Amino acid sequence: MKECLIAPSILSADFARLGEEVDNVLAAGADVVHFDVMDNHYVPNLTIGPMVCKALRNHGVTAPIDVHLMVSPVDRMIADFAEAGATYITFHPEASDHIDRSLQLIKSAGCKAGLVFNPATPLHYMDYVMDKLDVVLLMSVNPGFGGQSFIPATLDKLREARKKIDESGYDIRLEIDGGVKVDNIGEIYAAGADMFVAGSAIFNATDYKTVIDDMRAEIAKAGS
Ligand SMILES: O=C(CO)[C@@H](O)[C@H](O)COP(=O)(O)O
Ligand SMILES: [Fe+2]
């Protein structure tokens, strides 16, 4: 199993102090900044775009930025986010007319590419593009909002995705997003995830470091 990555979702950060919030959560031990892009079309909410990603880079953020695109169409956002400093760019297969082309665009822009699966989206979308994937992201809530509860059926889906990834022989991360907390991260890890997005669990806490440390301790406990 790979080193586990903790990726706080800045959707639950204080947007009025975003640079400071990102600095604080990285200083508290986060590995990756999860950046939720919503367009009020693919999902019923509207958030942030490439200018904010660029602003974080200009602010001095050097950690990987994991851009989760909840937009349709997908392709015209890819070059802008690559230019703005994205490390990972992931998108929902239903939102792209040409999944293979979107993945190729991400890779040729120099970013890591991934597909995102909603709770009811079947995993077979990954079958013919495994060679182009750096990450598979399973949503454990319906996309659009932070602070929702983890959908338990995602645990079986994680096991299924882990099996597909392992059998493929490719080096692909398995990311989970939605309702991840200290009290469920152990079973999520045991089901096969190695990259954990957590928004409200971290940013709604007074001490980010304690939450991140506790998450890592639960992962270590589940792995021993
Ligand atoms: O992509 C999304 C929601 O669509 C997520 O990244 C959420 O922002 C996660 O928030 P929590 O469920 O951890 O509060
Ligand atoms: Fe997300």
From TrEMBL:
The keyword Manganese applies. InterPro entries: Aldolase_TIM, Ribul_P_3_epim, Ribul_P_3_epim-like, RibuloseP-bd_barrel. A divalent metal cation binds at H34, D36, H68, D177. It is an enzyme of class 5 (isomerase). CDD domains: RPE (cd00429). Pathway: Carbohydrate degradation. SUPFAM superfamilies: Ribulose-phoshate binding barrel (SSF51366). Keywords: Carbohydrate metabolism, Cobalt, Isomerase, Manganese, Metal-binding, Zinc. Transmembrane segments: none annotated. Its cofactor is Mn(2+); Zn(2+); Co(2+); a divalent metal cation. Its EC number is 5.1.3.1. Belongs to the ribulose-phosphate 3-epimerase family. PANTHER family: RIBULOSE-5-PHOSPHATE-3-EPIMERASE (PTHR11749). This is Ribulose-phosphate 3-epimerase. It comes from Thalassolituus maritimus. The gene is rpe.
